[in-house]
Amino acid sequence: MGVVLGCMSSQFFSCLASLGCSCCCAACRHLKISGSIGTRMNYAGMFLLNSTIAYAMTTSWGIDLVKRISWGFISLKCPEGVCYGTLAVHRMCFSLSLWHVALGLLTVRVEDSRHPRAALQNGWWLAKFAGWVGLVVVSFVIPNGFFQFYSRYVAMVGAGIFLLVQLVLLVDFAYNLAEGCIARWEETGRLLWRNLLVGGTLAMYVAFVGMTVADFVFFAKEGCGRNQFFVTANMLACIAASAMAVHPRVQEANLKSGLAQAGMVTAYATYLVTSALAGSPPEEQEGAPECNPLARAASARATMAVVGAFFTIGAICYSTTNAAVKSNTLISGGGSYERLATEDPSCVPLTQGTNAQLRQSALRDAVASGALPASALDSDDDSQTSDDEKAGVQYNYTFFHVVFCMASMYAAMLLTNWNSISSTDHIIIIGRSTMAVWVKVATSWLCIALYAWTLLGPVVLPDREWS
Questions:
Q1: What's the rounded Cα separation, in Å, for the pair 435 and 419?
Q2: In sequence order, which residues have a C-beta less than 8 Å from that of residue 288 and are 6 or more positions away?
Q3: Structure confidence by residue, pLDDT tens digits, 19-48
Q4: Structure pTM?
Q5: 3-class secondary-structure state, position 78
Q6: H-state helical runs in 191-325
Q7: Cα 259 from chain centroid?
Q8: DSSP structure string for 370-425
Q9: Number of C-beta neighbours around residue 202 at 10 A
Q10: Is 111 helix (H, G, I), strand (E, B) or coil?
Q11: What does 341-365 look like in DSSP terms, one character per residue?
C-alpha cells in the first residue's frame, strides 16, 4: 500500500496543475473566451488528462513510459490488475466519475454565477485538481473485487446510456447543420451556403459508397459470413433511410427531412461498421480465411492505436461539452418560446440577450451625454466577456457533471475494449475485440433506427408535437 500511495508525487501533480490552469486561464483572457466556455474547456482538459493516463496504464509498457516522461516522479511497481491492465483503467476512470458526482451534488440548483456555490463550478481549480489526485490515490487501494463488479455492471450501464446520448446529439447535429445552411442561404442569398449544403451531402454519400466498396473488398471476402452480413445489412439500412428521407409523405409531415441529414447519418453509420471490421481481432483457427488483413500489420496496428485513441477521446470531449449546452433539450425536451397565433408580434418577452443590449444602449447614451466616462463601456465589455452567467447559467451544472460521469465510464469501456484487453500486448488498439465489434455494429444500427424514427414519427403520430 505504501508503494502505491508513494507513487503519486504531490509535487509533480501540483506543478502540472498550476501550469495547466495558468495556461488555460491566460488563454481564456487573451482570446476573450467567456466564463462558461472557459470552464467547459478546463473540464474537457481534465477528462483528456485522465483518459491519457488511463490509456498509458493499459500495459506495463505504458507504466514504464509514464515513469520516463515524469522523470521518475511516478513509479508504479505492482502486479498486473492493480497498477496496469483492465482494472487499472477502471480505477482511473472511476476516480474521475466519482469526482464529477461530488461536484454535481455540490452544484445542485445553482442558477447564476452570483450563487455562493457557483465558484465550485467555475473556480477553485487547484483544490479540485488536488481532490481528483486524492481520489486516484485512494482508488488504487480499493480491492480488485470492487472494480470487477463495477466494470461489469456499473460502468457498462453508464457507458450504454452515454452511447445513447451521443446518438441523440448526432441526429440533432445533422438537423441543425442542414437547417443552418438553409437559413443562411435564404437570409443572405449567397450561393456559398447552397453549394456547401449540396457539396457536403454529396461528399457524405461518396464516403458511404467508398467505405462500403472497401468493406466488401477487404473485409467481406469469401468465407467471411459475419462481415458480409454486417456490410450488407448496413448498406440496405442506409439506402432505406435515405429513400425514406425524401418520401413525399415523410417530407409533408416533417419539413426538415432531406438527404443532407440522411447523408450524415449514413456516413457515420458506415464509418462505425468499417471501424468495427478494421478493429476485429485476427482469426485464431488455423486455415480460417483472413477477414481482417489489417490485424497482423504492425504499422497499421501502431497507426490505429494512436489515431483511434485521440479520435475517440476527442469525440467524447466534444459530445460531453455539447451535451452540457443542450442539457435543457435532453432533460425536458426543449423550452423554446413559440409565439401564439393571437399574440401581437411586437410584444415579445425580454430575454437575457435583450436585457444586455438595453443595458449596453443605456451606457452608450450615458457616455454620450457626459454622465459617465468613456471607460465605462470598456469595463462593461470586460465584465460581460469574463462572466456570461450573471443573469443565469448557460447550462445545467449538475447535468453537466452527470454526463461527464457517464463519459468517464464510456471511456473506460473503450480503453479496455469493453473489458477484454490483455496486458501481454505491447500496443492496445481501441476497438480490437469481438465485444467492441458488436458494440460498434449495434451502435450503427441504433443510429439508423433513431434517425428513421425522427422521419416516421411525425407520420405515425401526426397529433404529437415534434420539435
A1: 9
A2: 223
A3: 444 444 444 444 344 567 788 888 988 988
A4: 0.69
A5: coil
A6: 191-214, 225-245, 248-253, 259-278, 298-325
A7: 25
A8: TSS-THHHHHHHHHHHH-S-SSS-SS-HHHHHHHHHHHHHHHHHHHTTTTT--TT-
A9: 12
A10: coil
A11: TTS-TT-----HHHHHHHHHHHHHH
